[in-house]
Amino acid sequence: MTNYSQQYFGKDLNDITYEDILNFFKEEKEESDKIEFKAFHPDFGDFSKNLVGVIRGICAFLNSNGGILIWGAPLGQKVEEKVVFQGELSLVTELKEKDSLISKVSDSITPLPININVNIIEQEGKYLYVFETQISNYSPHQFKNTYWARLDGQTKPAPHYLVEALFKKISYPNIEGYINLDRFGHLPTGEAYLDISILMINFSELQNEYNLTYRLMCGPAIFAGSRNPQLAKYYTMKGHMYVHKDLNDILHFGAPDINTQRLVFNMEDLADNYNNKMTLILTFGGKQSPLKISDYKLDFSGPIAANNPVGLFESKRENILSAERQKELGTTRENLLEHILKR
């Protein structure tokens, strides 16, 4: 990944401060294909209406070479046939929680993008939003039914030739995996159960995926199917892992694969040994698509709805590339080999 923050500010995104942005705009700045400035101003509407322009810019970066978008920048001024940005910042008046904001941006763009990050900087009750976007392996992306790109230092509708080229460059389908919580209850044996759905979706319009496989692991619970001798071959780790393999020859765009499973567990054991918490880890990939991970943390300490018990979700991290997860964990070739080979 490209560290655009380092290029422009000499530091990582999360280390950028209000003073860094203030100093940045002490001199005239122009936009480029890798940096865009958005002012927040009542003339542009409320938070949601201002956000539309931000999402449009992020979509353009995804379809181009990635870059930095500063929301709360000075108002642009036209000087000698060019637009420059300098001086007083036009800060955003509303705070949007980071994860919620990233979800809002990502959900507005099709196909769902990854590698969008933001640093939210507070200054006397107002806010700067600094976004860093990486070039996407799943472009072209669209927002409000339009493909956007950075052209000549501006966000513009992408011309037909560029959209066609972006479609042709896609090297692997974008497969996304999700878990839904369907029903919670108790069996006559006294055990608790949680019915879940595993969804696999192909978001690449022009590419099918083949030989889809996935694994779902849950330490505190076992899969009810593992108790059935005819189905036991699909479960490992004494029933704590479900393995979905050789069951999907092809996954088409717009035709999700949905698999339902039941988790069975003891609530007292969950409380005593796991602090009422449960983790689900879903790893998946296909013949052409890279391995991804979606993991979920559930909290059973509060009231639980019988139907659609989504209140159990404590946290979700979905569709993270395995390579990105390895980087987060600090995994290197050397320590991975040491762990595997035990030498």
Automatic annotation (TrEMBL):
InterPro entries recorded: Schlafen_AlbA_2_dom, Schlafen_AlbA_2_dom_sf
Matching Pfam families: SLFN_AlbA_2
Gene Ontology molecular function: any one: ATP binding
Ranges annotated as spanning the membrane: none
Superkingdom in the source lineage: Bacteria
Entry coiled-coil feature ranges: none
Keyword annotations from UniProtKB, A to Z: ATP-binding, Nucleotide-binding
Residue intervals of the Schlafen AlbA-2 domain: 31-158
This protein's name: ATP-binding protein
Organism expressing this protein natively: Allotamlana fucoidanivorans
